[in-house]
Amino acid sequence: MTLIVGQLCRLRPIRRSNAMVSIGWRNNPAIRNAVMGYRFPVTETMEDRWYDQVLAEQSGRRATFAIEENIDGVFIGFVHLTEIDWPSRAAQFGIVIGDTSRQCRGIGSEASRLALRYAFDTLNLDRLELRVSEPNTRARHIYQKLGFREEGRLRRAAFIDGVAIDVMVMGILREEFADER
Ligand SMILES: CC(C)(COP(=O)(O)OP(=O)(O)OC[C@H]1O[C@@H](n2cnc3c(N)ncnc32)[C@H](O)[C@@H]1OP(=O)(O)O)[C@@H](O)C(=O)NCCC(=O)NCCS
């Protein structure tokens, strides 16, 4: 059922049976802070509803993929294109490697690259946008590497771990994508 295959990882449709894994990521403060996610405890019912919402929006306004590591097929994260605006050919981009033991091994960069390729070459989008907290230098580094540019700074736009932080708006146009085919 794999859709997009890279050297380290592959992207496939999400599966409801993954909810008990992803709920652990969502309730992990390190992940939650990194993605500026939902601050309240996420219950199993809420996680199930999130899958319902994703499945309802899939193909119209969103494309969410599960990321699996090739080496063992384990489900380790999500990559998303959301709020797809077809007339503007624009969408929001997001990624999480929720299994923290699998971070910093090149998978986030590759999964992002595969998703950008899909956005530009398959969906024919022209622009992707994201928000990332200023302290999240690792994510900002991979976004810059892919060709995203900083387009703005939302001052003190998030309160994380006791500190008000700035949030960076980053965007990429299709011709700016630094693909490594
Ligand atoms: C951000 C994230 C997607 C990156 O994926 P990853 O698989 O961990 O990262 P990769 O191994 O592909 O790349 C990491 C790069 O960042 C660099 N890096 C690592 N720590 C860093 C830091 N603190 N500051 C700057 N760069 C850093 C690495 O050197 C590497 O750079 P290189 O490819 O030029 O050598 C992943 O760590 C993650 O999901 N984090 C939690 C959720 C999150 O932050 N999502 C993004 C929210 S906007």
- Helix percent reads 25-40%
**What would you call the shape?**
globular
The chain-level mean pLDDT equals 96
Query: C-alpha Rg, in Å?
Result: 16 Å
Number of discrete helical segments: 5
CATH superfamily: Gcn5-related N-acetyltransferase (GNAT)
The termini sit apart by: 23 Å
Question: What is the CATH topology?
Answer: Aminopeptidase
TL;DR of this structure?
The protein is of the alpha+beta class.
How would you portray this structure in words?
The mean pLDDT is 96. This protein has helices spanning 19-26, 29-35, 44-57, 107-122, 137-146; strands at residues 4-5, 9-13, 63-69, 75-85, 90-97, 127-133, 149-160, 163-173. 30% of the residues lie in helices and 35% in strands. It contains five helices and eight strands, in the order E-E-H-H-H-E-E-E-H-E-H-E-E. It is globular, with a radius of gyration of 16 Å. The chain has one domain (4-176): Gcn5-related N-acetyltransferase (GNAT) (Aminopeptidase), CATH 3.40.630. By secondary structure, the chain is α+β, with helices and mostly antiparallel strands. The site of coenzyme A has 21 residues, from helix 2, strand 5, helix 4 and helix 5.
Key terms:
181 residues; 8-stranded mixed sheet; Aminopeptidase; 8 strands; alpha+beta; binds coenzyme A; globular; 30% helix
Secondary-structure map with pairings?
Elements: E1 4-5, E2 9-13, H1 19-26, H2 29-35, H3 44-57, E3 63-69, E4 75-85, E5 90-97, H4 107-122, E6 127-133, H5 137-146, E7 149-160, E8 163-173
Parallel strand pairs: 5-6
Antiparallel strand pairs: 1-2, 2-3, 3-4, 4-5, 6-8, 7-8
Helix pairs in contact: 1-3
The structure holds coenzyme A (COA).
Residues 31, 34-35, 95-97, 103-109, 132, 136-139, 141-142, 145 line the site of coenzyme A.
